[in-house]
Design a protein that fits this description.
about 850 residues; seven-stranded antiparallel sheet; five-stranded antiparallel sheet; 12 helices; 60 strands; globular
């Protein structure tokens, strides 16, 4: 390869020559020129442009685009590529291959050395249609090559990236390039060659006979969908690869577009702030309305001779609301006929239900759905069931008053059959319960089989006969979870398979479920209650929580799927009292709990892995920026709280099933122990400075008040601190321990209140117009909270026997908003999680005619 200058057009070019030994062969020369001209006809941004083919004396040459950048081989010099960058490059490579294959051109020598990446990230593939004519020792490649068995010296590919059909000398087609592509992507993901042995002969044998080491063995953070795509490309039989490279490119593009920015291992290592490219939100207005109109047109029109293609679009959340459903609620559900969507969203600080037809941008609030969660449709689409105030209720989908059906203190999505029976889960006592849709006393249908280690039965889902139902049986956080089938007519159950996700059945015979942050459909015989065949990818980047085996999706019986994308990462930043950013901790991550140690020298946080749906505790030394992972087991550890002396962390863990409260001494393995094991969900919130009391949230007793206190000395029993019919949360002890500041919805919207720790007396409101997340300064002279509009407020406090507070004043506002924060002991700085995007795209996605995604793989 030579660098030259074209004097006619005044541009630099790359010149490749054909050796004289091959140029003398008229057949070789004819094929060289023919394929070079064919490659030059490919007009694609990811394929190097060929300008001219010529001959000078006995030397044939090709003039082509000069590419400045690095080869993929050079990019991998530092190790495997991060999943996000890998997907960005792989999608471009596959798109270029698809273009070439559509034109009848097969590369035959795809390898990292033949793929260039420009300085701005644009892929350029070299040597299209030429590699098969190169010979050992030619300057076109320095990699080891092998000749055709009947035509010595003719290269069919580079050892290690050949397909099995190439290695065995058989005829090749475009699917051979798919195998080579799979080998390249495997190496990009793992940093290792898929097939590498001591000798050429052994490598060829491995390509033909052996399977590579699983991707996850070297690169466990690689998305599951990408691992499956690599495995399909590396199938020994060409028939098992993609029928079309265009389909391969589409799958990669979809995976790239829906992959999370937080797919890498979360960490809190301190780094200097750096600029980030902001993603543009989906266009609203006309575009969204057109998408919705098209969706409804496809849903309602009569069947056509040619089935409509699958279509994806985004649904916006209702104006003026915040979409943030709890981890036990999917937050959205599509009606059985696929024409309407129910959305759970916060309006004026309280959760409500909104109904939106898919052919309209208007969403109507259902009055009477205040503080609702865990909603699901009646089979005829006339009613919506939901949980609120410790009750299971139903409300007309067209609007009207809500009706209480029964007591139901824990809100997991239920199921409703055509005979008017509703099933739902409970944790205290545990099991699956039934109630008629006209209301009445809930009756236990199926208790856990404690003899076989079952502790929880959750996510019941009726099968079409209305008698049998699927459910998830759990044996504790670290145990096995099983998908089983039960019946209203018997207490016997049968195993369907091991699964860590709720499921929904949909005709013509599929179970929809989540695995590692992706949504799959798998053939299911509902009469035999048996899975068959292979799961097929429907969507990536789906919101998933391991603890409750919950995936945020909903399926109609008319070919519509709605789902929520994975949580977007926040930036963990330092803000001064004027709101100026004065530092940052690590990369953007999904974080819920964030807590500074009492001395302000450490930060504890729970960081989420969107693929597994689990959170782990991390502690960062703020002076050095060094982070330590406290847990790495496959369960949730969340909401850390420091002990008063900073020696221990108290946190929520679901290692035994429904979350309990544990403590551990960071850096001291074996010190973990349970503090509180009670039915339902327990979540620590704060510890009094004298270490006597732990304030926590008890969701199993939501009808009596959320805030409970646990004596940590003297063996006292936990007790409800504030038993009201309103929603109370976020308790924080004053430094002197006399008062607890908290949020309450008593006024109709969340406000900040304070009450005496002893008996919850002298209760008084602090915020005049809405507030959340109270935080005290260490000397007790200031109380902070977040007001509507993401304003950080400061309230002067005079410590003493009675609570004397001044007028709240705004220190600053942030845009994007603050999700969580804590304050340094002296009140000089705030550590906050701030949304990465100012106007993020809606997380609600809809797919119409999703079964068409499966048909092209048959």
């Amino acid at each position: 390869m030579w660098r030259a200058r074209d004097p006619r057009l005044g541009r630099e070019v790359a010149i490749k020559v054909l050796p004289e030994s091959l140029a003398a062969d008229s057949d070789r020369l004819s094929r060289f020129e023919q394929e070079a001209r064919a490659a030059s006809a490919l007009n694609h941004p990811n394929i190097v442009t060929i300008y001219e083919v010529g001959k000078s004396d006995a030397v044939s040459w090709i003039s082509m685009e000069l590419v400045r950048g690095a080869t993929v081989r050079e990019l991998m010099a530092g190790g495997p590529l991060a999943p996000k960058r890998l997907l960005a490059l792989a999608a471009q490579i596959a798109d270029a291959l698809g273009k070439a294959h559509d034109a009848g051109i097969v590369h035959r020598d795809l390898k990292p050395e033949n793929i260039m990446v420009t300085r701005d990230g644009l892929v350029k593939i070299l040597d299209f249609g030429l590699a098969k004519l190169a010979v050992s020792g030619d300057s076109l490649t320095t990699a080891e090559t092998v000749g055709h068995p009947t035509t010595p010296g003719v290269v069919l590919g580079t050892v290690g990236y050949m397909s099995p059909e190439q290695a065995s000398g058989r005829t090749v087609d475009f699917r051979s390039d798919q195998f080579s592509f799979g080998s390249v992507v495997y190496e990009m993901a793992t940093g290792k060659r898929a097939f590498s042995r001591a000798t050429t002969a052994e490598t060829l044998t491995a390509i033909i006979r052996d399977e590579p080491e699983p991707v996850e063995a070297s690169a466990p953070l690689t998305p599951l969908a990408l691992r499956w795509l690599i495995e399909r490309c590396l199938a020994k039989d060409p028939e098992d690869r993609y029928r079309s490279t265009r389909d391969l490119a589409l799958d990669l593009a979809r995976l790239r577009d829906h992959s999370s920015d937080s797919s890498r291992e979360p960490a809190m290592a301190a780094q200097a702030p750096r600029s980030r490219r902001r993603r543009l939100g989906t266009a609203a207005g006309t575009g969204a309305l057109l998408a919705a109109a098209l969706a409804l047109f496809f849903l309602r029109r009569p069947p056509a001779p040619t089935a409509a293609a699958a279509m994806r679009f985004t649904i916006s959340v209702p104006p003026g609301t915040i979409y943030s459903p709890p981890e036990v609620s999917r937050g959205l559900s599509v009606s059985p006929d696929g024409t309407r969507l129910v959305i759970e969203a916060y309006s004026k600080g309280r959760r409500r239900l909104f109904v939106r037809p898919l052919d309209s941008e208007e969403a109507t609030e259902l009055e009477g759905s205040l503080d609702s969660t865990g909603h699901f449709w009646s089979p005829d689409g006339r009613f919506i069931a939901f949980y609120a105030d410790g009750k299971l209720k139903k409300i007309p989908a067209a609007g009207g008053p809500a009706v209480e059906l029964c007591d139901a203190p824990f809100a997991l999505v239920g199921t409703w059959n055509r005979e008017g029976t509703i099933l739902f889960s409970n944790f205290n006592p545990p099991g699956i319960f039934r109630v008629p849709d006209t209301g009445g006393r809930a009756e236990l249908v199926l208790p856990p089989d404690h003899a076989h280690g079952q502790e929880t039965l959750i996510w019941p889902h009726f099968l079409p006969d209305g008698k049998r139902f699927l459910f998830i049986a759990g044996t504790g956080g670290l145990g096995v979870r099983e998908l089983r089938v039960g019946s209203l007519e018997s207490n016997k159950t049968a195993l369907v398979g091991r699964l860590n996700s709720r499921v929904e059945y949909v005709a013509p015979g599929y179970l929809i479920y989540a695995r590692e942050g992706s949504l799959f459909a798998q053939p299911f015989d509902e009469r035999k209650a048996a899975l068959s065949g292979e799961p097929r990818l429907i969507a990536s980047n789906v919101r998933y929580f391991y603890g409750p085996s919950h995936a945020a999706f909903s399926v109609s019986q008319t070919g519509v799927i709605a789902y929520q994308t994975a949580a977007r990462p926040d930036e963990i930043v330092w803000l001064d009292r004027a709101g100026k950013r004065v530092g940052q901790i690590g990369e953007p991550v999904v974080v819920m709990g964030l807590r500074l140690s009492p001395d302000g020298k450490k930060a504890a946080a729970d960081l989420e892995d969107h693929r597994t749906g689990t959170s782990d505790l991390w502690v960062t030394e703020l002076s050095s920026g060094v982070s330590t992972r406290i847990h790495s087991d496959p369960v949730d550890e969340k909401m850390p709280v420091w002990s008063p002396d900073g020696s221990k962390l108290i946190y929520r863990s679901d290692r035994k099933g429904p979350p309990d409260i544990y403590e551990i001494a960071p850096g001291a393995p074996g010190t973990e122990r349970p503090l509180l094991e009670e039915p339902g969900v327990q979540e620590p919130a704060d510890i009094s400075r004298d270490g006597r009391l732990l304030a926590y949230l008890n969701e199993a007793q939501s009808a009596l008040g959320h805030i409970w206190l646990l004596p940590l000395q003297g063996g006292g029993k936990p007790f409800s601190w504030l038993g009201t019919r309103f929603h109370e949360t976020s308790p924080r002890f004053s430094p002197d321990g006399r008062w607890i500041a908290f949020e309450s919805t008593e006024s109709g919207v969340p406000e900040i209140y304070a009450a005496l720790t002893e008996g919850a007396g002298e209760r008084r409101r602090i915020s005049p117009s809405g507030g959340r997340l109270p935080r005290w300064r260490a000397d007790g002279k200031e109380l902070f909270y977040i007001a509507p509009g993401s304003a950080l407020m400061a309230v002067p406090v005079t410590p003493g026997a009675s609570l004397q507070t001044g007028t709240p004043s705004s220190l600053f506002r942030t845009d994007p908003e603050i999700h969580n924060y804590d304050v340094m002991p002296d009140g000089s700085r705030f550590l906050a999680t701030v949304a990465l995007e100012k106007n993020p795209e809606s997380p609600i996605r809809v797919i119409v005619h999703w079964t068409r995604l499966l048909e092209r793989e048959k």
